[in-house]
Write a structure and sequence with these properties.
With about 140 residues, the protein is an alpha+beta fold. Helices cover about 30% and strands about 25% of the residues. It has a 5-stranded mixed β-sheet, with helices on one face. It is globular and about 35 Å long.
């Protein structure tokens, strides 16, 4: 499958909302989700759009930061590809794009989180060369 990978301009960032609504265990009301997306876009956040022709079929958020242990790094977040486009090699192409883009931004580290129960993602990330370095803990306030 031949798709385009592009950084979504901050001025168009709300186009990711419908795909984010399909994600995960925590359903967020659309109005709140859109407010959060706009706030994210004002921070150190960018988002890759995966396009088939002009149709947005996937997204991957990128958080850029400097870590004391790693230097400049990028954290891919909320990766989603529309169901009908899965298992076509887009994940590999997406991560090649991420690695190239991160190097252009002088990052030397990629780290990410995935849900413990998301077994297919674990296999994918192992195949990408990721290793488990720790646990991600949360506490809701």
């Amino acid at each position: 499958m031949n798709c385009d990978f592009k950084i979504i301009p901050a001025s168009e960032i709300l186009i990711i909302s419908p795909l984010l609504q399909k994600l995960g265990e925590h359903k967020v009301p659309v109005k709140v989700l859109n407010q959060r997306i706009l706030e994210m876009a004002s921070q150190s956040y960018e988002c890759i759009g995966i396009y088939n022709s002009n149709t947005l079929i996937g997204i991957c958020g990128l958080w850029f930061q400097t870590r004391h242990y790693a230097g400049k790094s990028v954290e891919p977040d909320h990766i989603i590809i529309d169901e009908e486009y899965r298992n076509m090699g887009l994940g590999d192409k997406l991560f090649k794009f991420i690695y190239s883009y991160a190097l252009k931004k002088e990052c030397n580290w990629v780290e990410l989180n995935t849900y413990v129960s998301n077994y297919p993602s674990h296999k994918f990330y192992y195949n990408q060369g990721f290793v488990i370095k720790g646990y991600h803990f949360i506490k809701e306030l």
